[in-house]
Amino acid sequence: MRTIVLGGFATNFGVESTARDAYERGYAPEEIVTFKNVPVPMVGPSNSTPMTNMAGGVPVVLREFLRKPDLTNIASWPSATIIRFELSTHPAGVALDFVEITTDTGEKAGIYGHAWRSPSDRELLLASIPAGVQTMDITWVAQKTRSVEFLVKPPK
């Protein structure tokens, strides 16, 4: 992992402490990106005003935040809240991976999972968002992908 993408509002504790932790683990300051003032929309409307920052010279876009009612049936993933990120230039060999999410109230959001739309597009799926949450801090890592080729010989 080489680049971390941070998003959120609470820069004095949530985002700042995550950035400090990343720095202490050896990530260069220019590889850390913070999306500030990421609003949590009301149930129903989509916040599709894109926010863009750079991660290691690559534009990272928070493309959409589509909030849906909290899930009551864990098997109904199509009904989960969706937060969509993308590497807008679709660089070869770079992918996004989810790391962490925190809320401005300090309560945990119910993470359902995350999904690939393509190597450069990711969706974070939330089962629930606590009442009263207005902003979230969202941490992703933008990393170079690697492939390894090997040959497995059948047993004799």
Mean pLDDT: 76
SS strand fraction: 35-45%
Topology as a string of helices (H) and strands (E): EHEEEEEEEEE
Tally of strands:
10
Spatial gap, N to C terminus: 39 Å
The helix fraction, in percent, is under 10%
Q: What would the principal axes of the Cα set say about the shape?
A: globular
How many domain modules? 1
Largest sheet, strands/sense/barrel: 6 strands, antiparallel
Please tally the helical runs, counting DSSP H or I stretches of 4 or more residues: 1
Q: What's the alpha carbon Rg, rounded to whole Å?
A: 17 Å
Structural class: mainly beta
Low-confidence region ranges = none
List key phrases describing it.
156 residues, mainly beta, 1 helix
Overview of the molecule:
- The protein has 156 residues and is mainly beta.
- It has one domain (3-144).
- Helices cover 9% and strands 45% of the residues.
- The chain has one helix at residues 11-24, and strands at 3-8, 32-36, 46-47, 51-55, 58-66, 81-87, 94-103, 110-118, 121-128, 136-144.
- It is globular and about 60 Å long.
In short:
The protein has 156 residues and is mainly β.
Secondary structure layout plus pairing:
Layout: E1 3-8, H1 11-24, E2 32-36, E3 46-47, E4 51-55, E5 58-66, E6 81-87, E7 94-103, E8 110-118, E9 121-128, E10 136-144
